[in-house]
Hints:
Elements: E1 5-8, H1 18-31, E2 37-40, H2 58-70, E3 74-78, H3 88-94, E4 97-99, E5 103-107, E6 110-115, H4 125-134, H5 137-144, H6 148-167, H7 171-174, H8 178-187, E7 192-195, E8 202-208, E9 211-217, E10 227-232, E11 235-240
Parallel strand pairs: 1-2, 2-3, 3-4, 6-7, 7-9
Antiparallel strand pairs: 1-10, 5-6, 8-9, 10-11
Helix pairs in contact: 1-2
Amino acid sequence: MNTEILFISDLHLAWDKPEITQRFLHFLDNRATKASTLYILGDLFDAWVGDDDFSPPNPKIRESLKRLTESGVKVYFQQGNRDFLLGNQFCKDTGIVLLDDPVQIDLFGVPTLLMHGDLLCTDDLPYQEFRSKSRTPEWQHNVLSKPLFVRLLVARWYRIRSYFHKRQKTQEIMDVNQKTVTDTLVKHNCLRLIHGHTHRPNIHNFEINGKAAQRYVLAAWTKDKGDALVWDENGYRIETV
């Protein structure tokens, strides 16, 4: 029995990114079937306006995820800053399991914290304010009660606005705050963290109270390639998709 565990994030799937969509579908139908578990740590979609959105490429992605979970592979999903409106109906349609952010798992005997990563970027105060507001049931109900075509138009407008806002921010503001990383790990009694969001793939080694700690940052997928963090009994490796 294969015990491999896969971690991916930040694919930002959308109708205008067909190369990434095809790579992901191939990954689900082939590589992922050889693992025991797949963790998707947020921003699978570039924008998610509600589980009632069946515009392309969403139907094919639902079908492929459903095939994978029906084959016996466990798929866990953590909402990102782009797809935090993904909800229970999508989970029922695909068989995936929605996770809290952060969440602690046992990764081959080592307590490991999983996050999308945006909660760690505490220097970006305007975003953290928006994040806090947009996660309330009242805000989400107000958005999801709008007609689908309105939500799609608003999502496209937000994508454009986000692009220009990012150009005005420094790279330091958009990256994680190390003190927040340390405080979060201490709070959850972990020395290992896996997250995405920043699009800065790396493995960071540091210390917490004299003990070795690691932060694994997942790569964003592009039209040229994607990466998966693969873990088994012998440790980890980065696998190019």
